[in-house]
Amino acid sequence: MEIDFKLKELPLVKNKLETLDFLFGNAITMSMWIADMEFEIAQPIQQALIDRVSNSGFGYEYKPDSFFEAQKEWYKEKNRIQLNKNQIVYSPSIKTTIAILIENFTGENEGVIVQPPVYMEFGDAIESRNRSLVNNALELVDNRYYINFKDLEEKAKLAQNKVLIICNPQNPIGRVWTKGELKEIVRICKQNNLLLISDEIHKDVILFDHQFTSALQFIKDYNRIVVCTSESKTFNLCSIADSMAIIPEQTIRNSITDTLKKYNLVANNALTRVALEAAYKGGHIWLAEVLKTVEENVEIIKKAIENSKIELIVPEGTYQVWLNFEKVYKNTEEMFNEITKKSGVALNAGHWYGSKGAMFMRMNIATSNEKVAKAITRIVEATEEAS
Prior knowledge:
With 387 residues, the protein is α/β, with parallel strands linked by helices. It has two domains: 5-42 and 284-384, Alpha-Beta Complex (Aspartate Aminotransferase, domain 1); 57-281, Aspartate Aminotransferase, domain 2 (3-Layer(aba) Sandwich), CATH 3.40.640.10. The protein has twelve helices and 15 strands. It has a seven-stranded mixed sheet with strand order 2-10-9-8-7-3-4, with helices on both faces.
């Protein structure tokens, strides 16, 4: 797939000069950090939006049955999830939902467990509410990350810890947790009455024949599970799509719904509804092309770094890659400054995802083969002097 060069006309955060200068300095010529795509969105979505805008009526809307039927079929086919309309709560964003869950089901100074290196917004949502951020750090063994279940069990047993947040597929490392790993997570949560929040926003971006399993597969074993998800990553609708929480347990669901209503966060967006319904019905071929391109980009990176000291954590899901520079640099500041200045490529600094990511950087590869090849070549050349 090729880059949609019309994107240059849009005010995208990843290209905002003030942001780039603040985070990376003024040497950036290639932006490959924020997790959105550079492909033209699927034609069925574009046409559906054009048709809807052509109808000038924009009164208050609801989600019709056709939307729910399309959504239900997508989740059944792609994720093996049997959606129940009555268990879905729509929210402006996953972070909104997680923030409400933390506020409603924990008290000040109580603990919320996360698994770094992990999406940094989890920590922000926890600490900005005066809760305790509890790290169950993932372990890197032979270039693959694993959950430290012994440490997780010890922390789950502590009475002050009330919630576990997992990310599946995991951002930034790209692991897709296996059914066996999820089963053990659920067992520990059930044994210690932890609320389990599973962020599954990247669920449709599964690579190299890996198998995604939702935490909802275990709802019969334990009902204190909330799955937060969205198709914003799947179809590159980050500025238009909302999110949803799937909450089978009624008490938890009512708590979230009441808070969303309290702050008037339940309005329906007509264009979001149209875009998503069109995506569910006609986005399959486009998504398959995206996944093929992302897999090709992983292979391009593998080949480009094979004679360097850079190591790739091969992603099982997501369209990011996690690059290991431990054998190249001595500290994170040197790594970040050298790569940024010499390559001109903007990557996410690994320490943004916690101290365990200090010698890593995350690279967005949801773009053309040509751009990925050019960027990784620049990065390799930038490290040669340090090596």
